[in-house]
Design brief:
Blueprint: E1 2-3, H1 15-27, H2 38-57, E2 66-69, H3 72-83, E3 89-93, H4 98-107, E4 110-114, H5 124-128, E5 135-141, H6 153-162, E6 167-170, E7 189-193, E8 205-209, H7 247-263, H8 265-284, E9 289-292, E10 300-305, H9 310-321, E11 323-324, E12 326-328, H10 333-339, E13 346-350, H11 357-368
Parallel strand pairs: 1-11, 3-4, 3-5, 5-6, 6-7
Antiparallel strand pairs: 2-8, 7-8, 9-10, 10-13, 12-13
Helix pairs in contact: 1-7, 2-7, 3-4, 8-11
Length: about 375
């Protein structure tokens, strides 16, 4: 199978990720913070080591500002529900995933959707125009999981900082591919996936919380610290990490970050741009195919074939050609409303560091066979 559904999760992982998870399961998969023996101490060291690597990757000063979660969705919920209440106004963009839209709708007093252009680009000006006196949070996706278009988070962050508004970035599609520095980019909260372009296993993700941000706790319970207290610890990361962590997953994620560092963000991005451009050029040369999104994008390319249903296209690519894609609304109805594709959905190709030119050329050849 040619796997081009990496925006959902990367299928091919570095060998080091798999082997280290296997090693952990065999020899030291104890419960960090739940005992004083050597194995719990070793597991604690491995978890902290991963925090350190992630902190360095994102320009974070203190590793304890990194909270481990099961995925980006959990990280976004922790951030949004930890800051927003019925007295709050929130600004989100017209390209947000349901993992942003739904918690905002459920807990904010009001919200405004900043318009994106026809390529899915969200300008800093569109965000600025939506801010009110009681705006408690700005949330913007770094790159849409539908259009792939990269948004100007540094400029948006500068505006948010100037106006003392917390800024939450959804980096599900960019962490590991685009250089992110929370200080340079003025990011207050960064939600990221471990299982996508960081090449960790499913069930891994995280949230960066700036030192000046105090979140309400959503889940409370055992943390391995302050066990005599009736109340949740008030320090990071314990206050936001109740219960047993996905220790095996975190060990794998740690090796995924090693892979990113060894390969380098620069090299990964250069390859992504090359393959994405090759794919877009190939699809755009077909008069019966419409490609969505802008030129400056991650490796996400969504398209339609003569108004065919996108799920049907995806199913045919799988059944007839052995290509894994994603069709439909991609859990991002706002994005499809912006692009005008809410009735048809889109078929999405998404690449990874393990995608080859041969994979791209084969995908283009297979789409060409859809011509009536």
């Amino acid at each position: 199978m040619i796997y081009l559904d990496n925006a959902a999760t990367t299928l091919q992982k570095p060998h080091s990720v798999i082997s280290q998870m296997n090693e952990c399961m065999k020899h030291y998969c104890a419960n960090s913070g739940r005992g004083g023996h050597k194995l719990t101490m070793l597991m604690g060291e491995k978890i902290y080591e991963c925090r350190e690597k992630l902190a360095k990757l994102f320009g974070v000063e203190s590793p304890t500002s990194i909270v481990f979660t099961n995925n980006t969705t959990a990280a976004l919920n922790i951030a949004i529900k930890g800051l927003v209440d019925k007295n709050s106004h929130v600004v989100i963009s017209g390209m947000e995933h349901n993992s942003v839209l739904r918690p905002v709708v459920s807990c904010a007093g009001s919200y405004t959707i900043a318009k994106a252009d026809k390529t899915g680009f969200v300008s800093a000006k569109s965000i600025e125009d939506c801010v009110k006196e009681n705006t408690a949070l700005i949330v913007v996706t770094h790159a849409s999981n539908v259009a792939g278009t990269i948004n100007p988070i540094k400029q948006i962050g500068e505006f948010a900082k100037k106006n003392n508004i917390p800024f939450l970035v959804d980096a599900a599609q960019t962490a590991g591919v685009i250089d992110i520095d929370v200080k340079r980019d003025n990011i207050s909260l960064l939600a990221f996936a471990g299982h996508k372009m960081l090449y960790g296993p499913t069930g891994t993700g995280g949230l960066y919380v700036a030192p000046n941000i105090k979140l309400r706790t959503i889940i409370e319970g055992g943390t391995g610290t302050m066990s005599a207290s009736f109340t949740q610890p008030d320090f990071m990361p314990d206050m936001l990490e109740s219960g047993t962590l996905n220790t095996v997953g975190i060990v794998g994620l740690s090796k995924g970050v090693d892979f990113i560092n060894k390969t380098t963000i620069k090299a990964i991005r250069e390859k992504e741009v090359l393959l994405t451009g090759r794919l877009i050029d190939g699809l755009s040369n077909m008069d019966f195919v419409k490609v969505y999104g802008g030129q400056n994008r991650v490796g996400v390319v969504s398209f339609l074939i003569d108004e065919m249903d996108s799920v049907e296209i995806s199913q045919r690519l799988d059944n007839e050609f052995g290509i894994a894609t994603r069709g439909g609304l991609h859990c991002a109805v706002l994005a499809h409303q912006t692009l005008g594709t809410q009735s048809t959905g889109l078929t999405r190709f998404s690449i990874s560091e393990f995608t080859t030119k041969q994979n791209i050329d084969y995908a283009i050849k297979c789409v060409s066979k859809f011509k009536k």
